[in-house]
Amino acid sequence: MTSLIETIVKPLVDYPDEVRVKEVSEEHQVTYFIEVHKEDIGKIIGKQGRVAKAIRTVVSAAASQLDKKVHVKIQE
Predict the structure, then answer these.
(1) What does the record give under GO molecular function (predicted)?
(2) HEC assignment per residue over 7-73
């Protein structure tokens, strides 16, 4: 799943080498933390959060076969 998130995020940013995806797995949920260069945060969030919402939608659709909730968070 981390490679999917990286594949989505890297073309959107100016500093693709600084994209980091961290996975934190718990009993009934998995949280993915996306870290990008501070100048790229706005590009990942998008206007009114549309890009972030689209990323979350794609990741949750890909993870629908898992029996866990999936969360995607963007870190500064």
Answers:
(1) RNA binding
(2) HHHHHHCCCHHHCEEEEEECCCEEEEEEECCHHHHHHHHCHHHHHHHHHHHHHHHHCCCCCCEEEEE
> pTM for the full model?
0.88
Report residue 73: phi and psi, to 5°: -125, 140
Does the pLDDT of residue 14 top 90, yes or no? yes
Specify whether the CB–CB gap between 73 and 31 falls below 8 A.
Answer: yes
Task: Give domain limits for the chain.
Answer: 2-75
Tokens representing 21?
């995806």
Average pLDDT for the chain: 93
Percent pLDDT > 70 in the chain is: 100
CB 43 within 8 A of CB 18: no
